[in-house]
């Protein structure tokens, strides 16, 4: 079936979409869903408050980083504004031993992995080539090349398979790998190749596609004739479409896909339908290609508001929200102070971590570069 | 104490150079919070609201709405401590220097980091705020003692303040450099050279020392144009027309009233050359011997070595073989490597060969030497020759490289000259002139053949070198050039 075009005012996602998995409506009511509701039953109010706190703090981090770019403290910033539920929901479903390959907007996923988000700023300030040790939290470095890490994730997952960490039934041993990418990445050959290999190898990998409707200025409907989650079926990969602004649904859907991967059931393609409420990056101006009406529509579907309505209805106290607001403010100030104190890194750092072991060519180049740099020093000091 | 911090126009979109100020959201006297919208700007990419980096009171709005502003230009001054006591110091009201000590350090740290930020676009800002700090650093050589600077109200860091070179709190001059920077005045000269790598490369290639080039770019950055202008200034061959003379003549110097003569003071390399030549020519009685030699085999060897993988990283020239031949000859007759010590009335025999190469450079004649050339393999010698010439051409020859030579080669052949009677480099006792290599009719195995032929001339200090010794050295040099295989016998 070819999806009809929905250019213009009417966004093509909503409750009328029968395929869309949703456990929490826009107005904050729980929906019963036969397959997925049981997967979130164990989340009590405290757990939901935890998810809410995650989303609020990540959003605070994101807006502060955006402001820091406008202050001139960062060279560039890719916002995750509006995608918090997709990132927090899926990220909280992960086990410690699972491994994540993010693209460059997954600040929320990094948060759920225990990454000190301040480290993310180094790269965007131009002071680091990565910023953190991927092994520390099983959270790889941001990949700026669109879609390439889908292959890395698949290869890594095949490695996990060969290590025998799949289908043992030991919940502390079985591992899954998640590749996060956007709707635009699905048009890249790398993602298709990754799905070919993942499918035929039954690799324990989850392709988590955040369809935020815009690949910079290119709308999803100009990239695909079918809903993205159906891309998987051609490769033999089950696909599922989830309301990406519903943190519970994202949690449940990811939980199911991870379990399938860990138990040896192979890959899953998840399309989380969400919306990039901000610009593509701080260098982008979305008003040039999308309408105010569209943005307003999605603003009513804000993932944080939705959970807040639900929590209030469930009896969360106003004190909780006030305290969280204060915490977020304090967090924002910390981010700001930290960013301004990031030390300048030596340019020769480019030679670090190129290879795991010492490499003669890299050493030769490092040595040449150091001499070259030193040459300028004496030039200045000569007289 | 009020503490004023400037906010400079950031590059909000990866590589923008300017933006239009569209609309100020605040006015002087307004109290602002961090991240409150200050101003709306329009760049080539988008319309953007700039949030305030500081909390405080708007002290000055430096740019009117409607103006187009370069990235890095201060646009607003915010007093971040408006409730503090009024300033006790009458001078330079906008500078946050008076507070001294820790508080001030914090202020400037704020500002500095604002400067150190952007991948390449914030550098203007960075430059302006960093310059004074760096300026103070090299002075005391006492290490980066982290003491705070004395609360001097001056706007310039004291250049020689001993041990008071604080890396982070450069108290004055840095932070909101008051109206000085606001007005776009150039910062004080500094030992930190600000130039982009391609410009540095250009300067190196042209032999221009960057610390002599005044930077006219934003924040004192040396631009490509600056370097090119400096190169043109140091280029003596520029011709200009003078009134009263029908033909153009060299630029520079003092031109006589009738425009027919130019007087140029004798300086630097020219002065040193003159001094050395006079000293040498009138203390050491010169005698010169000549030899014409068939160097066809040397030319074949050069061609072969050029193909040799071991020599792929360097240039192989006939001069290289001539140098090797001379070294071999000197090793057979080591007493030519000597010097006359007039003061002690002794002859100093040198056990080593520091082989001088006369090099014509844009700045004049220099004679750097290759230290211990006698220890070098042919490849090492080739590399040393290449380095020496490159350094000399770039005008980077150090004085050390020009002292303690033992013997010199002057390659007059590159000018197409047969040969000459070279004057000794002072302190040396022999110099070889290597003439042009040309094809000439030559008797070869009893027949007249076109052969590659050159002329060699060796001048020596006749006080200590007799004609016999000099002639033997020249003959042996020629013999190796005629048949490089001889080098195997003598090597």
From TrEMBL, chain B:
<protein>
    <recommendedName>
        <fullName>Dihydrolipoamide acetyltransferase component of pyruvate dehydrogenase complex</fullName>
        <ecNumber>2.3.1.-</ecNumber>
    </recommendedName>
</protein>
<feature type="region of interest" description="Disordered">
    <location>
        <begin position="77"/>
        <end position="195"/>
    </location>
</feature>
<dbReference type="InterPro" id="IPR023213">
    <property type="entry name" value="CAT-like_dom_sf"/>
</dbReference>
<dbReference type="InterPro" id="IPR036625">
    <property type="entry name" value="E3-bd_dom_sf"/>
</dbReference>
<feature type="domain" description="Lipoyl-binding">
    <location>
        <begin position="4"/>
        <end position="79"/>
    </location>
</feature>
<dbReference type="InterPro" id="IPR001078">
    <property type="entry name" value="2-oxoacid_DH_actylTfrase"/>
</dbReference>
<feature type="domain" description="Peripheral subunit-binding (PSBD)">
    <location>
        <begin position="194"/>
        <end position="231"/>
    </location>
</feature>
<comment type="similarity">
    <text>Belongs to the 2-oxoacid dehydrogenase family.</text>
</comment>
<dbReference type="Pfam" id="PF00198">
    <property type="entry name" value="2-oxoacid_dh"/>
</dbReference>
<dbReference type="InterPro" id="IPR050743">
    <property type="entry name" value="2-oxoacid_DH_E2_comp"/>
</dbReference>
<feature type="compositionally biased region" description="Pro residues">
    <location>
        <begin position="147"/>
        <end position="173"/>
    </location>
</feature>
<dbReference type="InterPro" id="IPR004167">
    <property type="entry name" value="PSBD"/>
</dbReference>
<keyword id="KW-0808">Transferase</keyword>
<dbReference type="InterPro" id="IPR011053">
    <property type="entry name" value="Single_hybrid_motif"/>
</dbReference>
<dbReference type="Pfam" id="PF00364">
    <property type="entry name" value="Biotin_lipoyl"/>
</dbReference>
<feature type="compositionally biased region" description="Acidic residues">
    <location>
        <begin position="80"/>
        <end position="90"/>
    </location>
</feature>
<dbReference type="Pfam" id="PF02817">
    <property type="entry name" value="E3_binding"/>
</dbReference>
<feature type="compositionally biased region" description="Low complexity">
    <location>
        <begin position="137"/>
        <end position="146"/>
    </location>
</feature>
<keyword id="KW-0450">Lipoyl</keyword>
<dbReference type="InterPro" id="IPR000089">
    <property type="entry name" value="Biotin_lipoyl"/>
</dbReference>
<feature type="compositionally biased region" description="Polar residues">
    <location>
        <begin position="177"/>
        <end position="193"/>
    </location>
</feature>
<keyword id="KW-0012">Acyltransferase</keyword>
């Amino acid at each position: 079936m070819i999806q009809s075009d929905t250019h213009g005012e009417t966004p093509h996602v909503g409750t009328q979409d029968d395929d869309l998995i949703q456990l929490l409506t826009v107005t904050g009511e729980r929906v019963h869903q036969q397959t997925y509701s049981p997967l979130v039953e164990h989340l009590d109010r405290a757990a939901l408050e935890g998810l809410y706190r995650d989303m609020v703090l990540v959003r605070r981090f994101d807006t502060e980083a955006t402001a820091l770019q406008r202050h001139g403290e960062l060279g560039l910033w890719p916002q995750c504004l509006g995608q918090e539920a997709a990132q927090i929901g899926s990220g909280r479903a992960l086990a410690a031993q699972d491994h994540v390959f993010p693209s460059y907007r997954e600040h929320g996923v990094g948060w759920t992995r225990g990454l000190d988000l301040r480290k993310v700023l180094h790269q965007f300030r131009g002071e680091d080539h990565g910023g953190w040790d991927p092994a520390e939290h099983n959270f790889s470095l941001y990949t700026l090349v669109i879609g390439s890490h889908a292959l890395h994730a698949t290869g890594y997952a095949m490695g996990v398979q060969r290590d025998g960490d799949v289908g043992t039934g030991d919940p502390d041993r079985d591992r899954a790998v998640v590749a996060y990418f956007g709707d635009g990445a699905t048009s890249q050959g790398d993602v298709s190749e990754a799905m070919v290999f993942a499918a035929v190898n039954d690799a324990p990998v989850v392709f988590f596609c955040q369809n935020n409707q815009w690949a910079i200025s290119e709308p999803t409907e100009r990239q695909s004739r079918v809903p993205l989650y159906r891309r998987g079926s051609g490769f033999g990969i089950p696909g599922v479409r989830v309301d990406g602004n519903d943190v519970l649904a994202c949690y449940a859907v990811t939980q199911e896909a991870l379990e399938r991967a860990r138990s040896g059931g192979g890959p899953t393609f998840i399309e989380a339908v969400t919306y990039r409420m901000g610009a593509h990056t701080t260098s982008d101006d979305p008003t040039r290609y999308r309408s105010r009406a569209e943005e307003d529509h999605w603003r009513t579907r804000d993932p944080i508001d939705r959970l807040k309505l639900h929590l209030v209805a469930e009896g969360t106290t106003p004190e909780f929200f006030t305290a969280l607001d204060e915490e977020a403010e304090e967090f924002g100030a910390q981010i700001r102070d930290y960013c301004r104190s990031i030390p300048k890194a030596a340019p020769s750092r480019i030679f670090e971590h190129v290879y795991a072991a010492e490499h003669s060519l890299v050493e030769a180049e490092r040595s040449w570069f150091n001499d070259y740099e030193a040459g300028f020093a004496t030039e200045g000091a000569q007289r | 104490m009020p503490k004023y911090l400037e906010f400079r126009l950031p590059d909000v979109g990866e590589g923008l150079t300017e933006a239009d100020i569209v609309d100020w959201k605040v006015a002087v006297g307004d109290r602002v919070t961090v991240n409150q919208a200050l101003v709306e700007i329009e760049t080539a990419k988008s319309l953007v609201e700039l949030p305030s980096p500081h909390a405080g009171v708007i002290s000055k709005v430096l740019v009117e709405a409607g103006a187009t502003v370069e990235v890095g230009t201060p646009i607003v001054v915010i007093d971040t401590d408006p409730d503090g006591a009024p300033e006790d110091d009458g001078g330079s009201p906008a500078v946050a220097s008076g507070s001294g000590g820790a508080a001030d350090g914090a202020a400037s740290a704020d500002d500095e980091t604002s400067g150190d930020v952007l991948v390449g676009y914030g550098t203007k800002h960075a430059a302006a705020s960093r310059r004074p700090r760096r300026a103070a650093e090299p002075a005391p050589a006492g290490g980066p003692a982290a003491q705070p600077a004395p609360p001097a109200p001056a706007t310039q860091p004291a250049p020689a303040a001993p041990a008071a070179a604080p890396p982070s709190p450069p108290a004055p001059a840095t932070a909101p450099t008051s109206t000085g920077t606001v007005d776009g005045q150039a910062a004080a000269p500094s030992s930190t050279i600000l130039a982009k790598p391609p410009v540095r490369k250009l300067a190196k290639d042209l032999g221009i020392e960057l610390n002599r080039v005044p930077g006219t770019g934003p924040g004192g950055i040396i631009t490509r144009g600056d370097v090119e202008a400096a190169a043109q200034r140091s280029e003596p061959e520029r011709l200009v027309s003078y009134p009263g003379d029908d033909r153009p003549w060299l630029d520079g110097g003092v031109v006589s009233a009738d425009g027919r003569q130019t007087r140029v003071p004798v300086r630097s390399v020219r002065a040193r050359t003159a001094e050395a030549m006079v000293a040498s020519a009138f203390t050491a009685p010169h005698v010169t011997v000549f030899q014409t030699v068939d160097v066809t085999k040397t030319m074949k060897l050069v061609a072969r070595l050029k193909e040799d993988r071991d020599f792929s990283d360097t240039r192989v020239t006939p001069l290289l073989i001539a140098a090797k031949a001379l070294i071999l000859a000197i090793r057979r007759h080591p007493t030519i490597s000597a010097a006359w010590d007039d003061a002690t009335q002794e002859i100093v025999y040198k056990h080593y060969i520091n082989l001088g190469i006369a090099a014509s450079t844009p700045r004049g004649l220099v004679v750097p030497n290759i230290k211990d050339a006698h220890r070098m393999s042919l490849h090492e010698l080739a590399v040393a020759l290449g380095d020496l010439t490159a350094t000399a051409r770039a005008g980077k020859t150090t004085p050390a490289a020009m002292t303690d030579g033992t013997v010199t080669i002057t390659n007059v052949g590159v000018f197409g000259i047969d040969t000459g009677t070279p004057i000794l480099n002072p302190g040396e006792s022999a110099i070889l002139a290597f003439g042009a290599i040309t094809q000439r009719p030559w008797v070869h195995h009893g027949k007249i053949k076109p052969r590659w032929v050159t002329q060699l001339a060796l001048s020596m200090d006749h006080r200590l070198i007799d004609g016999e010794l000099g002639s033997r050295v020249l003959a042996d040099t020629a013999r190796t050039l005629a048949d490089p295989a001889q080098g195997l016998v003598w090597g």
